[in-house]
Amino acid sequence: MKKNSYIGISFIVLLFGIWTVKELTERFKDSGLEKLGKVPTFELTDQNGKKVTNKDYQGKVFVVEFFFANCATICPKMNQNMLQLQEANYGNLDFGIASITIDPENDTAAALKEHATKLGVKHPNWHFLTGNYEYIMNLANKGFNIYAGKDEKAQGGFEHSGLFALIDKEGNIRCRKDNFGNPILYYDGLEQPGIDAIKEDIKLLLEE
């Protein structure tokens, strides 16, 4: 084989190697988002009567909220904002949502199915979850450290946070930092800047 042929082949191999390294780097790049720890384990029932656990979300980027269907204050806004996340990730089976009711006495699987239908839920990985009240309160307040509880003075009888939790494919709770370099912990589920931020970070985690 001629010298020029060796040079040509070597050049092609070098280019292939560079391309492969670049491709792998892009594919497995770190988003730079903070890791806050593992998502709490849970087992609940969705709107179709199916048992759903945190393991069902393994390999997916997903968002968690605590709400209740009869909420007339912040929940409608939260659900509408969650619809934005569904639209941005529609058709992507590596994305999911867990909407966990804090009023399981009224939010049965059947009631949640009706709620999901009225809301316009189409993504197959958006589960509306119900279960034992004490179990859910413990999951919210101690597992995620996202406040939820009964309050007779509150409209609807419950009080809760409007925050969204973001979890990566490995089951880690993730977040960005604020302007001072501090982890924000959770995302504002009520205001558009918070929704824009979580949209961006979902995309980053899907690319990890």
From TrEMBL:
Disulfide bond among keywords: yes
Molecular function GO terms recorded: metal ion binding
Coiled-coil residues: none
Stretches assigned to the Thioredoxin domain: 33-200
Segments passing through the bilayer: 6-25
Presence of the UniProt keyword Disulfide bond in the record: yes
Intrachain disulfide bonds: C71-C75
Superkingdom to which the source organism belongs: Bacteria
Signal peptide range: none
Positions of Cu cation binding: C71, C75, H160
Keywords assigned by UniProt, alphabetized: Copper, Disulfide bond, Membrane, Metal-binding, Transmembrane, Transmembrane helix
Family membership: Belongs to the SCO1/2 family.
UniProt protein name: Protein SCO1/2
Organism in which the protein naturally occurs: Flavobacterium urocaniciphilum
